[in-house]
Amino acid sequence: MVARVQPSVAPQSRPASPGAGKPGEVSALDEVGSLQHETLGERVTGELRALLIAGRLAPGEKLSLRRVAEALGVSMMPVREAVSRLAADKALEVLPGRAVRVPVLTLAQFRELTRIRLVVEGFAAEEATKVITDAQIAVVARHEAAFLAAAKDPPDPAAAVGANRDLHFALYEAAGMPSLIEMISRLWLKAGPILNLDMRHEPRRLDGGSAVVAHAQLLAALRRRDPAAARQALVEDISAAAEHIERTARLAE
Amino acid sequence: MVARVQPSVAPQSRPASPGAGKPGEVSALDEVGSLQHETLGERVTGELRALLIAGRLAPGEKLSLRRVAEALGVSMMPVREAVSRLAADKALEVLPGRAVRVPVLTLAQFRELTRIRLVVEGFAAEEATKVITDAQIAVVARHEAAFLAAAKDPPDPAAAVGANRDLHFALYEAAGMPSLIEMISRLWLKAGPILNLDMRHEPRRLDGGSAVVAHAQLLAALRRRDPAAARQALVEDISAAAEHIERTARLAE
DNA sequence: TGTCGTGATCTGTGATCACAGTTAGGTTGG
DNA sequence: CCAACCTAACTGTGATCACAGATCACGACA
User: Fold this and answer.
1) Helix, strand, coil proportions of chain B in percent (round to 5)?
2) B-chain residues within 8 Å CB-CB of A123?
3) Chunked mean pLDDT (size 10), chain B, 253 residues
4) Nearest residue on chain B to A42, judged by CA atoms?
5) A34 CA to centre of own chain
6) Is the CB of B97 under 7 A from strand C?
7) What is the pTM of this model?
């Protein structure tokens, strides 16, 4: 079903009290970023988040706390916490007396989500372009190359989905606004299942599609340090993908 | 400490199936809109959310699961779920081995939050102005009147905070975008403790302050159906409040 | 053959217990 | 009188048990 919970990569080292070394001296203890307390529940949350964004959990798919717990090799408790968090973000929903499942978006909900993404991610792209460094542009370019490679014959949907995500977030992170990243992550969490499930099922869209063009325009705008153009490229990327979804994907109601 | 969890609005037990009506007839059962399952954890979440937005929990204040549970008259379990959700939204934070507390924003974090609010709430105001009805404008006006009344001598900080919140959300809800409301709520959840704790401590800011002017301009723009002006009025409202906070409130680092 | 009732099974929710880690307070030793 | 230690209380986390409600499949009745 799902991958077993791994030790995972350290998401963030706790600043923590640097072991009281003698004043003035730089102890080696200050270097070790005091092992983070990453709780089990957080790890499960991260696991489920990744699966949702990658579109590996289809809309409407039902989850069982006990099944997930067993699949991940943990007790039911951490899974409850993870599902509780994701349900608060409406990335999952718990039916009254039934089970917990991946939400099925209505057309109206999907359109609203897209409009919000245009505003928020457009803003992020604009701000990022103002302050992005050459090194960061290189990272974005690297992800674009990976995306292109994954889109060619033979197409590798999973890799393309990952590269696309990395490309976008590499750009957004350049803006240096953590809360904004967090907000965009939530949007992707909600849109991920449809967007990427589709991309997974129709890898053909990748090659020669609008995404490739939009990404190229985005990179060009970045290199010119043209915020408005970067925003425009991103808007086209999101819009084109959304239009395709509206035509092909099955949306509720 | 906090208000006890009340039975809330009657979750109303099913009105005892009034004998299945004959087929073909429109049964009274079709009328009852399947009663919501409001769980205990959700109620606690709502309680804490209200406390946070109202600024009744100060930044840095520590909470104890057991204490909150006892104060609300429930077991520790629902509180864990509520804290877990709010922590996922970063409306609360759990220190590694210590306790859970209301986050203390740094100046940089507060500024980022404000910038995001300008974008998101500005967008909401603009969209709302395009589709708002006269009745909805009247509701906004009513909340503005309540705000004015609460700001006058003698000032009633708690009422003013509530009226200000109701005014803003009445506007945003007119946009008819549920996910956007949810997003703005999260922003208020994070900014609420500083914003409203301040307003509570300095009620003088209310009277003759910039908020009154901004609200008047907002209402005028709504009546003219002028989206750009509405956005501008809101931007000034948020900016003025933020500037005041930056000058007076104690922010970390 | 179609429909309703019924029991087994599985669901999420809540409570209780156990535990490692930290904090705070009081006491002891200098 | 001050600092360091040490113990007792409290913290969140995780596991396990109990329970009401819903689903589903099978069987009885019309």
Assistant:
1) 65, 5, 35
2) 119
3) 42 35 41 62 93 88 92 93 93 86 93 97 97 96 92 80 93 96 95 78 63 92 96 94 84 71
4) B88
5) 27
6) yes
7) 0.84
